[in-house]
Design goal:
With about 130 residues, the chain is mainly α. The protein has 3 helices and no strands. It is globular. About 30% of the residues are buried.
């Protein structure tokens, strides 16, 4: 196990807290999009946020159980997880673009950006909390 990570800090715990903040942020962006563009705007914003959440879930699921023994192997696990996350987000966004005729692109980008930024901020806050 890599130093700096203790037994009480798990990827699932960190992901769960991150997802909670992502959902809250996505709902807020969707509410703003609803007020500006109606239901199609709200659904587009939700699609953007959900793509990030689904991407993160798949990345965690596929890299769970990997116990890196060196910093180099830990880096490889993180890079693999990020590559999986980006690929899943791209596929979900492609599906949304192809299947949803009422898409409001700006709302979709807003939901996507907000969920992605919150993801990084939540994980950073958890890291700082665990390093106290």
């Amino acid at each position: 196990m890599v130093s700096g990570m203790n037994d009480t800090t798990t990827i699932s715990h960190a992901f769960g807290k991150s997802v909670r903040w992502q959902i809250i942020a996505t709902v807020l962006v969707a509410a703003l999009a609803f007020s500006l563009a109606g239901w199609h705007g709200a659904l587009s914003a939700m699609g953007g946020g959900v793509s990030v959440i689904v991407g993160g879930f798949v990345a965690v699921a596929l890299t769970r159980g990997k116990k890196p023994s060196t910093p180099g192997s830990a880096l490889l696990v993180v890079l693999k997880a990020e590559a999986i996350k980006i690929a899943v987000i791209a596929l979900v966004l492609l599906a949304i673009f192809k299947l949803y005729r009422g898409l409001v692109p700006l709302a979709l980008i807003g939901g996507l950006a907000c969920a992605a930024l919150i993801s990084g901020a939540a994980l950073r806050a958890l890291d700082e909390e665990n390093n106290r």
